[in-house]
Task: inverse folding
């Protein structure tokens, strides 16, 4: 799992790596701390890239991947939602 922690507010892109994640195109759901992710961006039989959502949870939570070929794969205490971490996006601007 990379990264292993992120803001409780969500919008963190995480990569989940494992051997029982699915056939490569049949992952139907991913939850982090019981909350469905905002999106499943990429998937293969050994990794899935998702964007976390916000449900108000905090602390160390379980990560669950569901696929039609492998069923449910669970990583207990796999991700930490930190209420004190904020995620910022910086954009360059040009001032005339």
Result:
């Amino acid at each position: 799992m990379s990264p292993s922690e992120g803001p409780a507010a969500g919008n963190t892109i995480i990569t989940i790596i494992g051997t029982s994640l699915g056939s490569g195109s049949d992952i139907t759901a991913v939850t982090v701390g019981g909350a469905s992710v905002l999106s499943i961006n990429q998937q293969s039989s050994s990794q899935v890239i998702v964007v976390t959502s916000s449900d108000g949870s905090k602390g160390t939570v379980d990560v669950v991947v569901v696929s039609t070929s492998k069923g449910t794969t669970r990583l207990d205490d796999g991700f930490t939602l930190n209420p004190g971490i904020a995620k910022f996006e910086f954009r360059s601007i040009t001032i005339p």
Notes: The mean pLDDT is 88. The domain at 5-82 is CATH 2.60.40.10 (Immunoglobulin-like).
